[in-house]
Amino acid sequence: MNAPRLLVLQPSQSDPLAKLGDWLEAEGIELDLVPLKDMPAPQNLDGYQGVVCLGGEMGALDDLDHPWLADARRLLSSAVSKRLPTLAICLGAQLLAAATGGQVRKGPQGPEVGVLLVAKRDAAAADPLFADLPFTPDVLQFHNDEVHLLPPGAEHLAASPKYPNQAFRVGESAYGLQFHIETTPEIVLNWASKDPDSASCARAHHFDQEFLEEAHRDFEEVWQPFVGRFAKLVRGELLPALGSGTQLPLV
Fold first, then answer.
1. Phi, psi for residue 148 in degrees, rounded to 5
2. C or N: which end of the chain has fewer Cβ atoms within 10 Å?
3. Distance of alpha carbon 132 from alpha carbon 225, whole angstroms
4. Got the DSSP string for 100-130?
5. Model pTM?
6. What is the DSSP letter of 180?
7. Helix, strand or coil, per DSSP, at residue 69
8. Max CA-CA distance within the chain?
9. pLDDT value at position 246?
10. Could you report the per-residue pLDDT of 62-75, keeping only the tens digit for each?
11. Does the record carry Methyltransferase as a key word (predicted)?
12. Residue 34: which of 4, 72, 63, 64 has the closest Cα?
C-alpha cells in the first residue's frame, strides 16, 4: 500500500515545516512540499490525501505582491469541498478562512506574540483532533492579522483573550490554527530579529533561548499527539467530525 501523500503549501522560507514535517514523516506520511514563491502550485488535488498550509509574513489577501496566494486559497477551497483532511497554520488559517467565506483583517489590538495559552471551546469536546488536548494548551503566537469572522458553518474550537478565533474547523476535516505548533526556538528567534516591532509586544524573556527550548518541549508533548491524530485522519483510521457535512459557500 502506498504511503498517503500530503500537499504542503509553504508561503514563506521563514516558516518551514520544521517539527510538523518530522512528526508527519514519523507517521508514515509522504510530504510534497511546494514553496509557493518559487514553484507553481498544482492545478488540482488529484493524488493527494490531504493538505497542509504553513504561515508567512504576508497578508492573506496581498495578491498584488504575492499573486500565488490566490492559488493557495483555491486549493484550500477545493480541499474543503473534497473533504480532504487539511491543517492550515497562522497565515494558512487566514487563507482557509478567506477561501471559505470568512473575513480576515489587521488585528485591531495589535500583534499577538509569544508563548501564550489558548482555551478550548465547547465544540472541541466532540472534535476528533481537539477532544484530547488539554483545556488550555501552550502555543506560539506571532501574528498581526486575525480571522475576524469565521466561515459560515465553521466550528469554533479554541480562543484567546486577545483574538477569539484561534482554531476552527471548516466542513468535516479542514482545520485552521491561528497559532504555531511547528516551530523551533531558532525559527522563532529569526522571526523576532526580522520583525522587532512585533517581537517587542511579547514579554522580553519569551525570546530567551532557554525559555524557548523549555516551551518547545511543552509544545511537543501536546501537539505531536495532535498531529498523530491528524495523520490517522489522513490514513482513514480516524472518523472525521460528525454533523459537519453541510455545503459551504466556497469563494
1. -75, -45
2. N
3. 9
4. TT-EEEE-TT--EEEEEE-EE-GGGGG-TTT
5. 0.96
6. B
7. helix
8. 50
9. 40
10. 999 999 999 999 99
11. no
12. 72
